[in-house]
Design brief:
This protein is α/β, with parallel strands linked by helices and about 450 residues long. The protein folds into 2 domains: about 230 residues, 3-Layer(aba) Sandwich (Aldehyde Dehydrogenase, Chain A, domain 1); about 190 residues, 3-Layer(aba) Sandwich (Aldehyde Dehydrogenase, Chain A, domain 2). It has 15 helices and 20 strands. The strands form 5 sheets. A 7-stranded mixed β-sheet has the order 10-13-14-9-8-15-16. Strands 5-4-3-6-7-18 form a 6-stranded mixed β-sheet, sandwiched between helices. A 3-stranded antiparallel β-sheet has the order 1-2-20. Helix 6 links the parallel strand 4 and strand 5. It is globular, with a radius of gyration of 25 Å.
Length: about 450
């Protein structure tokens, strides 16, 4: 799609939005129902595409992509009627007689740029929120997941007219072309470097932006933790999607007194969940492409291996790998791993652990395993992060009842459920002033009586 065609598409979407059709509650509900039906019709096609692009098993694809998408859609269908309502708020006595209320309004035409690691979920979930808020939408899926991009394009074409929702495919050239256009809102999920570029382009038009990025999410294992259970849940969260998850535990910070017990438990869990030869496990995913495959291999230090480290270049698979005696000077700690490598760092005191975490950019996720309420309360009060779990990993994003988003370098804004609706809406503050009375206190000429009355009202 060239620049002229892209501009024509955006103009068509603006005209369709201006018609008011997308603001109708019945229309929004109808479109959500249509999307749900389309997802169910295309389920097998989406599963096959996820297998081709990322090697995901049917169970993992449904659990982490299609199922969560349908869950968000169902939540929005149940709550949309309440979300679009005006909400009355308190009116100060100084503004008597009036009614004050908050009114959600769609932004207009929005751009959603999604990543390759969860290409179905992270394309359709923000789409659901944007549709619910009453916008027209252009979707730009990642070129690194071509099979899913094609499947999504087929699904969207079948479900929506292009002046309402359209898919633009392609790579960096298409991204640049889109970002050079003016949108009313941009929603981007991906890496920090591209996120900075998106923010710079948005600044040219003063366009509001939601950035869902990533970072090095720590996982603290405190000495009171149930080690075997912690190992099981860490292995699940870390090696899900072959480690290519923005909220995966990036590294472990554990009390030095329990390191050996924890490492032993993690090795047992890897064997339990993926078998003795994970590279032969048909339910274990693959790295998305050769570029990322070789980048991840370059982070492995053989002399620090606890287990794993083996790989199969023909299938782009790297076995679950654990490293010990890691420091923040090592290459594996210099960037977000986004792969099946798990570095382990020890600490002598919780204060030392907190200092390590807080001396680096704020992460998207934070995990702590402990049986002490005092410990997790202290950690939550001292550490800055987007969201997280106590005694588990990654599951905090699998709910429409809580917002998901980052802080600082890990992102800005949040979505899911009510937060997602609000992220794609502007909330207008409106005062409906009555005409049956008009108090003269605010008008000139001012005198001592008016000043005294103002002092009574405005305090």
């Amino acid at each position: 799609m060239n620049d002229r065609q892209l501009q024509e598409l955006i103009n068509k979407q603006r005209n369709f939005y201006a018609s008011g059709a997308t603001k109708s509650l019945p229309y929004r509900q109808k479109m959500l129902a249509s999307l749900k039906a389309a997802i169910l019709r295309h389920e097998k096609e989406l599963l096959k595409a996820l297998k081709r692009d990322l090697g995901k098993s049917e169970a993992e694809s449904y659990m982490c992509e299609i199922g969560l998408t349908l869950s968000e859609l169902s939540w929005m269908q149940r709550h949309l009627k309440n979300l679009v309502r005006e909400k009355s708020v308190h009116t100060p006595l100084a503004q008597f007689a009036a009614r004050s209320f908050r009114s959600p309004s769609p932004y207009g035409t929005v751009l959603i740029m999604s990543p390759w690691n969860y290409p179905v979920l992270l394309t359709l979930e923000p789409l659901i929120d944007a549709l619910s808020a009453g916008n027209t939408i252009i979707l730009k899926p990642s070129a690194y997941a071509p099979s899913v991009s094609t499947a999504l394009q087929n699904l969207i074409k079948e479900c929506f007219p292009p002046e309402y929702v359209a898919v633009v495919t392609g790579g960096r050239k298409e991204n640049q072309a889109l970002l050079s256009q003016r949108f009313d809102k941009i929603f981007f999920t991906g890496g920090q470097n591209v996120g900075q570029e998106v923010l710079c382009h948005a600044a040219e038009h003063l366009t509001p932006v939601t950035l869902e990025l990533g970072g090095k999410s720590p996982c603290i294992v405190e000495k009171s933790a149930k080690i075997k259970l912690a190992a099981r849940r860490i292995v699940f969260g870390k090696f899900l999607n072959c480690g290519q998850t923005c909220v995966a535990p990036d590294y472990i910070l554990c009390d030095e007194s329990i390191q050996e017990e924890l490492l032993t438990a993690i090795q047992r869990e890897i064997t339990r969940q993926f078998g003795r030869e994970p590279l032969l496990n048909p339910n274990y995913g693959k790295i998305v492409n050769e570029k990322h495959f070789h980048r991840i291999l370059g982070l492995i230090e053989p002399d620090k291996l606890v287990c794993g480290g083996n790989y199969d270049e023909s299938t782009l698979r790297i076995a679950p790998t654990v490293m010990r005696n890691v420091t923040f000077r090592d290459a594996v700690m210099g960037e977000e791993i986004f792969g099946p490598l798990l570095p382990v760092i020890t600490y002598k005191s919780l204060k030392e652990a907190v200092n390590l975490i807080e001396s680096h950019p704020h992460p998207l996720a934070f995990y702590v395993f402990t049986e002490s309420r005092i410990v997790w309360k202290k950690l939550l009060s001292c550490c800055h992060f987007g969201g997280g779990c106590i005694n588990d990993t990654v599951i905090h994003l699998a709910t429409s009842a809580m917002p998901f988003g980052g802080i600082g370098g890990s992102g800005m804004g949040g979505y899911h459920g009510k937060a997602g609706f609000e992220e794609f809406s502007h909330t207008r503050s409106i005062v409906d002033k009555k005409t049956w009375i008009d108090l003269p206190i605010r008008y000139q000429p001012y005198n001592h009586l008016k000043i005294n009355l103002l002092k009574k009202f405005l305090r």
